[in-house]
Amino acid sequence: MDDISQLDECYRRYIKNIGSWIPEGIINIDLKLLSRFDLLNYHRKDSKDPALTRYFHVVETNEKITLVNDQFIVWIVPEKIDNLPITYALIALNKEEPHLELAFAAAGIYNSSRLVLRVLEKFLQEIQETEDLLGKYQKKVG
């Protein structure tokens, strides 16, 4: 789906009732998550971990940044709650009807663009690996 008005409609539907779309809740970036993704030492020059390697079309509004490619739709939403800046990211599979996969939030020391993008890339890799595995399984069963 590439129609921006339809993407905005999907975003509003998801954000309006995020709890029903993502029953496990919004994932908070913290030390445990960074450790799981091996991002605690992301300043190492010898790190072979790639930066964001996917190509996206970018649509920026006052409310959010939308990243779209043939596989994913990502909404990056900056907000302030009690004067604390928070960045939310919602990730959906780009299908005929986008399917929301997960959402994460970055606040405090974790709310830096570099870190948010690194975590985003890790989640995109996990989702893609899962989709590939499901596709292989469906081919075997079907």
Explain what this protein looks like in three dimensions:
The chain has 142 residues and is α+β, with helices and mostly antiparallel strands. The protein has one domain (4-141). It contains four helices and six strands, in the order H-H-E-H-E-E-E-E-E-H. The chain has helices spanning 4-16, 18-21, 31-36, 113-141; strands at 27-28, 57-60, 65-68, 72-81, 84-93, 99-107. A six-stranded mixed beta sheet has the order 1-6-5-4-3-2, sandwiched between helices. The longest helix has 29 residues, at 113-141. The chain is globular, with a radius of gyration of 16 Å. It starts with a helix and ends with a helix. The model has no long low-confidence stretch (mean pLDDT 88).
Structural descriptors:
single chain; 142 residues; alpha+beta; six-stranded mixed beta sheet; 4 helices; 6 strands
Summarize the structure.
By secondary structure, the chain is an alpha+beta fold.
Give the strand order, joined by hyphens, for the main sheet.
Answer: 1-6-5-4-3-2
Radius of gyration: 16 Å
Tell the overall outline.
globular
First-last Cα distance: 26 Å
Q: How many domains is the backbone divided into?
A: 1
Helix/strand-derived class?
A: alpha+beta
Number of helices: 4
* Strand tally: 6
Strand portion, in percent?
A: 25-35%
- Note poorly predicted spans: none
Helix content class: 25-40%
| Main sheet overview | 6 strands, mixed
Overall average residue pLDDT: 88
